[in-house]
Amino acid sequence: MTIVSTTPGTLPLSETTARVREHIVGMCAGPEGGHAGGSLSLVEILATLYFRVMRVDPRFPGAPDRDVLLLSKGHGGLALYGTLCEAGFFPEEWLADYAMPDSHLMAHPHPEIPGVEMPTGSLGHGLALGIGFALAFGLDSADRRCFVVMGDGELQEGSVWEAAAVAANHRLDNLVAVVDRNRLQITGDTEQVGGAEPLAERWRAFGWQVREADGHDVDELTLALGTPPTPGRPTLVIAHTVKGKGLPFVEGHVRSHYARLSERQHQRALAALRSEREKA
Amino acid sequence: MSETASRSSREVYRDLVAELLPRDERLVCLDSDTGLFGGVDFGTARDRYVNLGIAEHTMMGTAAGLAKEGRRPLVNTMAAFAASRAVEAVKIDIAMNHLPVVIAATHSGVSAGHLGPTHHALEDLAVMRTLPNMTVVAPGDAATTETLFRQALSVPGPVYFRLGRGPTPDLPQGPPVRLGRAQVLRRGLDVTIAACGPYPVLAALEAADRLGRDGIRASVLHVHTVKPLDVATLAAWASATGVVITVEEHWASAGFGAAVAESLTELMPIRMHRVALPDAFVSVAGDQRHLLRRAGVTASAVVERARAALGQKDV
């Protein structure tokens, strides 16, 4: 399997991820606020998938040979919207509609939005859906892959493990799951609330090929997500991330989970994102 | 009326799947280790029978993914697990996306009586008919099962297909069975009996016979499609008779009779009684007929309610 990306990208990926972060904080300054922390931790994961790894074409969101992404952690919707917008699935003006009355851009993704395959948000659904896509690709003898992005808190849902066992048992090597390992959920540390460790060992025990990467390093992510699978095994990528990444005053804090930004806070957040970039 | 025990609706369904899977490449049969397909050879379609194991939520999600890619999945589990355990996946993954998945739900009602209340499904019609985009079908016998299943494969969205466990008697011949249309088995202008499911329809027919001996003419409607409900036919007979008795193998709450009541009371003043299982778990063993008798889903109950309603009508 070769790594193919047909998404036109004229900007360096670091420019793209910076713009996606600005979109996220922009939407958090909208009427309802948004899931800032778990969206900011996802930015490089989604950018790597859409700009380097997946075969997708924004001009034909339903192209029959496309790879499929399911954002099982649907509360990362803002990162997905920002990424789809930067990839050209819809114009930037649409983002201003986020959470406005009658808009399809809701906190959790809905397939009315170009590029969104399935509605997600109730946790623990994506992996089973991914099995369906992966089985369909197999029946079609199609060289396509399905990527399922989950949160680490999401792994507390039993349905994840039900699907994990089924995927391995059916040898679905065209299925790639990603865990956004930001170590935080609404009420605190994932290890205190639910306990995800030993994460890699758990997935290996279920029969998955496990890879780990710095979830903010697009080169590491490209390797982990794009390298062909071990035949007969689904792949799990543990992407080690920081919740709220890019906003120093919330990075790694529980309070980053949901943000409702005033215009003053919005401007402060944009300035912080820029200064963080200059430092990097 | 014929009382010959025929094939069970789930066996009819199984044989249809065995016949149709090799002929229609869109079909994919997903199983949750039900055992229903033991010994079936799917031949060239072997790769389109997938036993996912005892994982009903995963099966519903998997069906949605397959359907999104153009397949027409048939998923197999017991009604209790389809309509309770896995219902969030049915709602979000299948119904919300309007995907053409047939959910074959066996052991519905109290047809698995001896297995106990964990394996009864007396809420499934209520749950499934509430979901937007869902078609809900409950065939009354083996022949109806075959006809309706073939028709269900043309429905452009999800279908909940309610099946039993053991054989039930054949219903008498009637007008052609069409999905979405009530089948009028008897025509009478004193009372309308609308029934859903094998034994409820049999109870309705027996009640009509008994009422007929007293000169009360009952119409009997075999309502195999609960959603979309054939409101036109129901309303026509309801307005002609003024009295409607519904019969079902389901809790009274939010089931078939409730669906009929919701529809008719918006259209006309009507006297209605529902013969259904009371608001209680069925916590004893017994076969399907025994448990229905015990719960009062019988021809006698229908006769009694019809007489009571007609008495009120005369006042």
From TrEMBL, chain A:
Pfam families: Transketolase_N (PF00456). Gene3D superfamilies: 3.40.50.970. Residues 31-266 form the Transketolase N-terminal domain. PANTHER family: TRANSKETOLASE, TRANSKETOLASE N-TERMINAL SECTION-RELATED. This is Transketolase. One of its GO terms (molecular function) is magnesium ion binding. The lineage of its organism: Bacteria, Bacillati, Actinomycetota, Actinomycetes, Streptosporangiales. InterPro entries: THDP-binding, Transketolase_N. Coiled coil: none annotated. It comes from the Bacteria.
UniProtKB/TrEMBL annotation, chain B:
InterPro entries: PDH/Transketolase, THDP-binding, Transketo_C/PFOR_II, Transketolase-like_Pyr-bd, Transketolase_C. Belongs to the transketolase family. Keywords: Thiamine pyrophosphate. Its cofactor is thiamine diphosphate. It comes from Nonomuraea diastatica. Pfam families: Transket_pyr (PF02779), Transketolase_C (PF02780). It comes from the Bacteria. One of its GO terms (molecular function) is magnesium ion binding. Residues 7-170 form the Transketolase-like pyrimidine-binding domain. This is Transketolase.
